[in-house]
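Incident log entry.

Two folding requests arrived from the same account within the same minute. Monitoring flagged them as a possible duplicate submission, but the sequences differ. Recording both here for audit purposes.

Request one:
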Amino acid sequence: AEESIGSGGGSGVHDDSVFADVLGSLELAVGRHRTAWNHVFINLVGADANDDLPIVEAAIASFIHAAFDDLRRLKVACVEVRVGTGAVVALNTSGLKFKISKTLECGESLEVHPLLNKIQRKRMACQNLSSTYVYDIPEVFSNVLADTNPGIGDILDLCELVIEPNSTTLVPTNRQPGSNDVGMVCWRMTFATKEYPAGREIILVANDITHMSGSLSPPEDVVYRAAFDLAVAEGLPCVYISSNSGARIGLDEAVKAAFRVRWVDDADVSKGFKYIYLSEDDYEILSAKGRVKANRVVHNDEIQYALTDVCGGQSVECLQGSGEIAAATSRAYKHTVTMAYVTGRSVGIGAYCSRLCQRVIQHVDAPLILTGASALNKVLGREVYTSNAQIGGPKVMGANGVSQVLVPDDVFGVRSILQWLSYIPCRRSAPLPCISCVDPIRRYVTFDPPSSAYDPRHLLNAFFDADSFMEVMPDWGRTVVTGRARLGGIPIGTVAVETRTVAKTIPADPAFASAQIAEESQAGQVWFPDSAFKTAQSIGDMNREGLPLIIFANWRGFAGGLRDMYGEVLKYGAYIVDALREYKQPVFVYIPQGGELRGGAWVVIDSSINPEQMEFYAAEGAKGGVLEPEGIVDIKFRREDLLMTMKRTVPGGLGDSQEDDAKKKAMMPMFKQLAVHFAGLHDTPGVMLHKKAIRDVVPWQTSREFFALRLRARLAEERIKSSILACAPNADVGEALASVSHVIDEIVAAEFGPIEPESHDGVKKMLAALSG
């Protein structure tokens, strides 16, 4: 290219239009050929290395900064500009960050189009799959940590783990990237964040899709299972990076090359065959290690071994290993925090393991499937599905709740992993990661819920710490909003209610000619089968993460129509009770200002389900009861009651004359309003408090301050209780707690900071007295 770049006055390096030409050409080439690991080479004619190299370097840095998203999308791995005898080279080996270097004397020694080495070929293969090479994943973590935790975020220690020979135990190793002989790679990673500046550990296990297409066989299964078992044993979060092609399949190639055929008619093979066999010599060699089983047959004085079993190759042992890793994943979910990031296609057992982790983050170009589209088309006998994304892409898995978060690339995927981990304790039973909060807890909640339908995310953002709310499963069960946030710097799970009417789309399966896209309208403030299941699942996940929970209750009830009952709304509503009954951290149920809680919706979240952990509150102006006032009036304040009320309350009274009958008819609408008002007086927060259905009435404006301080007190109480029961299971917990109430008061008065009452001298003395 004879055009010049940058700006340099008399040097002639003054214009960056060549970069625009480069991007335009790349758009055409990549779009047509779908290439990866692309190189950009520019030769500046007449430029001087000494004068122009710094300017060119600055111009390239500016160009990369401005066009980084385009360069990454176009899979550019190298930008090289020759400047006279020098050169500026920007390399992006991992697809995440360009590293710029320059040289003054490159001469002819710098190869213009170097051949790709082994690692680069693997990276290119992953780029073609819109994924990241497995050994570059830690670099993604490093870059995202530095970006999201300025001055703090970094990987403090990264130790690769491999299976010790002749065992199933993971041991540290120090080997070069790409030297793995198993398609599963595991690390113990320690990294610093603002929640844990001294570092926190996770177990990271990932498929290597460049090894046998990421297929899973017994060696991969052993690494995976050992990684999850290690996470359970140490109480560490386990993150699975999924990119695979399911269980490995394979035929015995030696037998395949050696077998012979006994034809029905040697002269006409189209008549079929009787059996396949091995010669006596081949059988002697191949049967020595149990690779084949056969029946001895003598035909025309020739000894033949008709094959009955071929035990070589890879088959059911891969399925057996798949069952073992599925069990390991399910077991780990019950005992520690498990998370899966689907960075590339995940097939069969790979999809199951991702789902069994429960917390699934999915790359938009990475389908989760059980069977590929081409295989399904063969089963169906026609071309039905056009791609794997049609079966298990984000529009499917995001809408059905299998994937909780959808991301456009691996950087956002790792960012979501780290954000999710930021709410979770570093180990099982460790204190919550509390941080200093610049958002004062004593500020008013400025969002005033309107009487009309509104977006509940506005309510959550106004209540919780600024920019702390992370929503999950936004496209599934849309009448409920769930996620994690911080309140006074303390991580907390939340469930809120969508008050607007939403639409649910059911896709048409092309395998059925008569199938059509269906649209269902779902009313706000109502639990439907999908949103009830979403509520129960979210509560279960948050419980296992060790998070406290606040439910902003604003439900009119459950959908009870034929379709909803057939869709198992009753079952999923019961799941909510199960999830709350098993909750081991503090739970607050709060009816916000203008909210209402009716019938079965109250029943499944009542504090009596788990009285040790649940506390029920309501704001001024909240409502609660079996039925809405209009419904109660239809049953308990009928026409006869209205007429009696008229006669009793209308000044001057009413008789039965024709004139009075006309008055009664005219006054009936107003008296219906009066009856509704009277019925509504039975649903007020004052009534709830009087009947001890709620613990207190908390004004909406000051609710943030109230719950932030109450949360600190409850968390401190629970940690002290755990310490008491650990050292003296038969102790009087209430009496012991009362003796250290001043410790709880101090923690609440601090307003911010860690909640670790067990380290307080007063608590230590109390525990020592109990254990002694």
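Request two (distinct sequence, not a duplicate):
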Amino acid sequence: GNERSRTRRRRRGCDRSHTLTAHDGRGQRGTRGRKLGAREETTTTTGCLECDGDQDTMANAAPISMKECLLLPSLGINQQYISFTNLTMESEKYICVREMGAASGGTNNVVIIDMAQPMQPMRRPITADSALMNPNSKIIALKAAVPGQTADHLQVFNLDTKAKLGSHQMPEQVVFWKWISETKIGIVSATSVYHWNVDGSSAPAKVFDRASNLNGTQVIKYMVTPDEKWCVLIGIAPGSADRPQLVKGYMQLYSMAQSRSQALEAHAAAFASIKVGANTSPSTLISFAQKSMVNGQLVSKLHVIELGTPAAGQTPFTKKQAELFFPPEFADDFPVSMQISKKYGLVYVITKLGLLFVYDLETATAVYRSRISPDPIFLTSEADSVGGFYAINRRGQVLLATVNEQSMVPFISQSLNNLDLALAIAKRGNLPGAEALVGQNFERLFGLGQYKEAAVAAAESPMGALRTKETIEKLKGVQVPAGQTSPLLQYFGTLLTKGKLNPLESLELGRLVLSQNKKQLLENWMNEDKLECDEALGDLVKNTGDSDLALKIYLKAQATQKVVTAFAERGQFEELVKYSGQVGHKPDYMYIMQSLLMSNPQAAAKLAVTIAQQPGPPVDVNTITDLFLQRNMIREATSFLLEVLKPNLPEQAMLQTKVLEINLVTYPNVADAILANNMFTHYDRPRVAQLCEKAGLYMRALQHYSDLSDIKRVIINTHAIEPQALVEFCGTLSPEWALPA
């Protein structure tokens, strides 16, 4: 390790021995016989701390990336207020700074920095001894001493509405306080710990008394688990007379269920929740870091233990511990904070002098060590959205530490030679870099006949590396005895418990359950948003005759053309037009009409009406009519035209003539009924008269002819004309046409 460090320094052109190699000290060896441990790099936002070098190469290879998000003095914040006493950061959303006196222009201010727009700080003229921004909302808690008393007055305000949400005067001085949830504040006095629910009007409720080991300490941290069953309080005190710089750390762990405390030595701690093995319920863990003198020896350790007793049938978490390796020049340095990444399952231990230790939570394996700040760090806050943390140093740098997703897994597998850990973290954080490891593990398990394990490994592969058609086909080919679950079902089952199937997997699972007549399962998974729908899955379901479920799939898949066709086939034309407008789609009505004419002529006729009634019809009415007539669908064409021509407009004369023509030629009785209803008045009357005569509708012909010769020719067909109708018709003729007496 030291030789590698020297080689690395030579490549950077550096002749100073400031980069130190650390290992986990447990004497474990990897598969290649090399000692496992944490490699150290010096990576900061301003370059190497003691020399210049190839910083870009180092930063790209490092598993942790550091970035300066903000420099507080650039916002006009005086250096003297960048301290633990004046600055708070309750979450990744807000930083709150108190400015006082002459250095702030003679006024007392509270500066609120929204990390979403940090260059637009909000200054409010507020006098307070402490200010805390709510971790999620624009709500501020203020603490001020009561004049002439050893008591503090607490107030909570909504900054948007200007409303006071709560107010209480504590009977004793508050030495530390912190938001422990969005609605509750933890309050620490010299003797006790209280919880105050600011949503109501109730006073703070006492939770427990401080342990004696915290007497005379400066409280720097208070935390509770999300279920509020466990609390931890941490304080620090000056070191011994012979070594005052080595600050002592004390911790009080309190169980709400047992109403009992445990006193320990620790500088930093954090709670976490993980599932152990195949447990159905998560275990609550606490990790804490300590550095102290034991029998004249300096001992620095990280501990991870389970809190409480596991439920019946649950596998307990085996407690872990690992050494924290401080370089000689950091002998008096100590942890000031700990953050745990839920996303990656990593423990971040941050020290006062800017060292960062990274450990795997589940195994307490050392992963990485780096100096991230040349200036003392006094505050950190979890950056939950990115799985990292913020750190603020005395210079006013707000640093963001995040996992370098491209480098983390290769770093662990190559630099630490810890393939199991590399694979575990890749799965946990869905990180790249483990594709080869995952593939080898799958093939090994498959070759050993451990098909269930192979299926689970494929389903859990990071970045979905093995979630491929090849894997599915391979699992399909495994023959299992009757009554046993197939590896393919095990594969799908694992995926369904963890998240959502991709389109290929959804289609294959659909085929599987439909072949077993278990369509309801498919619908349940869809409702739970477990399937990635596409056209192929919709087509598969449609072929079973379930058009309702098929339409749901097409809608989720945003398969616009399929949705439009499905609405058309169902006769839901208003929905079709509405949907097309919502998605900005111009349907190919000609294609849809042609499809429907072959499968559902009645639906085609309804769609034709919907098309024609749209403003500026996308398809000409004549064109639609011709589609029907080309297929000899006279009835459908007639139905369509009668609906469209209801307004009886002059510009519809040609179409009125057309609908009468086609029926006089093919269905004269229909034409007769149309004429009897007097629906149209603008058609070509001479043309219709001729067709009526040919069709044997002599009375209709007489009503339409206006020339005497035509009337004389038709009127002699008295055998086909009702006498009464003939008499009435003659009464309408001009007297000039009457025979002379």
